[in-house]
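Appendix B. Extra example for self-study. Work through it before the problem class; the solution is given directly after the inputs so you can check yourself.
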Amino acid sequence: DVVLTQTPSTLSATIGQSVSISCRSSQSLLDSAGNTYLYWYLQRPGQSPQLLIYLVSNLGSGVPNRFSGSGSGTDFTLKISGVEAEDLGVYYCMQATHAPWTFGGGTKLELK
Amino acid sequence: QVSLKESGPGILQPFQTLSLTCSFSGFSLGTSNMGVGWIRQTSGKGLEYLATIWWDDDKYFNPSLNSRLTVSKDTSNNQAFLKITSVDTADTGTYYCTRITTVALDYWGQGVMVTVSS
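Solution. Structure tokens for the complete assembly:
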């Protein structure tokens, strides 16, 4: 199975601060057709995960543009440009290039 | 507007069969390239992808649970189903269903908590 390693596991930020989360894959997520099926989700306390970023860098529906995704191959990054209070929770990366689809271990974003 | 909601027994005993229902609206499993996926969140393994059922009745199962999983759908009533046989305490967790399109697993249900206990 593809292992997704997220760092850091916990991130402390102040409101307005810009932060980044890394997701590294044990295998390249580029498929033979040239697609990279890497996603980012946010799980707020007591809620189900919600889609933030799809296919590495595309913003999900209704997602604020302070969120951005980048990367290729095995290294991917989620950036939040100016954390807001509603951004607190656990962030997960997920890959759907290789079966079985797998998730990272999560990065908890908390207020400093 | 897309929405999904899981339902299930809440508590069951070891070796019983877990049966979950995903009731959804705002899309149809009769639409090409549409699917419903099942994911669980446990304290032991975090988020774990379990299975998918597609519009054409094709199915995918996570090999780690393959022999214990069954998925099916009722297209007319906008429902999908997951069964897990011979449960044990490691199956305790929250189970989610999600909509799958060519783009992403874009909408998730609120989740249903399942506890396996004797």
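Self-check: Residues 72 and 94 of chain A are 14 Å apart (CA to CA). If your reasoning did not lead you there, revisit section 3.
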